[in-house]
Amino acid sequence: MLGAESRVESRLKKLESMVRNPQSELNLSALLDSMNALAHDLNYPILRKNKNIEAFLNRYDKLVNELRELQVKIDDFEKVKLIGRGAYGEVQLVRHKASRKVYAMKQLSKFEMIKRSESAFFWEERHIMAFSNSPWIVQLCCAFQDDQHLYMVMEFMPGGDLVTLTINYDIPEKWARFYTAEVVLALDAIHSMGFIHRDVKPDNMLLDQHGHLKLADFGTCMRMDSTGMVHCETAVGTPDYISPEVLQSQGGDGTYGRECDWWSVGVFLYELLVGETPFYAESLIGTYGKIMNYHNSLVFPDDMEMSQDAKDLISDFLTDRFAYQN
Known about the structure:
Residues 53-80 form a coiled coil. It comes from Xenotaenia resolanae. The protein is α+β, with helices and mostly antiparallel strands. It is 46% helix and 17% strand. The chain has helices at residues 2-20, 28-42, 45-48, 51-70, 110-115, 122-131, 162-168, 173-192, 244-249, 259-274, 284-292, 294-297, 308-317, 321-325; strands at 77-85, 89-96, 102-109, 140-145, 149-155, 195-196, 205-207, 213-215, 222-223, 229-231, 255-257. The strands form 4 sheets. Strands 1-2-3-5-4 form a 5-stranded antiparallel beta sheet. It has a two-stranded antiparallel sheet with strand order 6-9. It has a two-stranded antiparallel sheet with strand order 7-8. Helix 2 packs across helix 4, helix 8 (173-192) runs antiparallel to helix 10 (259-274) and helix 10 packs antiparallel against helix 13. The longest helix has 20 residues, at 51-70. The radius of gyration is 24 Å and the shape is elongated. The N and C termini lie far apart (60 Å).
């Protein structure tokens, strides 16, 4: 009898652990969201004709309304200004009405994300920002939803992005070395969590109030399998920064690994020092052709000074998977 009680107690503790663990798919927040969604989806006249549904809604209607009032919602924030726009929505600078703290709030259209579900990775983005403890990754403060949108409230980065920095300054090598090191640390943190970013570029590198870099925008991230690879048959990323492996995967086995992120770091470093990406062409086909033929198309300008160490580092990043394996 004592053994049976012990097993029951063990099961209850495991269930409690699942509910309390924020990384569990059965955590308290997920359960409350599910109850909210269920009550919303059942609350239609034709469905309420079913006496069991009607009884369920009558029983929980008051509690669900109270839940909706208690949860974080869009009315808790006042919009200050638009600071970014993307394929699935926009990013607003907002101020929390109660605390008066300033945040960046990403608002994503559910309709657009469902329509482009093959390239929309909301859960991955949320997971990385919520559970990474890296100082090189933008942190998530909270996430919530309404009928039409998903919202992610993130720390605000007042320094802007690296694109703005390169427009305003000629970047010396010591600056480039500093920012490249911080990008490498950010990617190492993401890879250690089991993800590949797939869209590393200056637009996704933000500066805090002290001038340090944090990587942002994880909506293209995919979780690696047990071999350290991802499978995707659509070209994800920004053309000038896409690696040969990503291009080769289209129409093939659709498989590549974290080398695609390191390739993008090489493009980024070259761009910081030269002022343009190394494989730029007038057409998309021309750019992709140069990337695939990178052994011959990677050229360092003769009319600018660049150390041999910088050239070697760029060349080491701009190589293929087999070179990393060797």
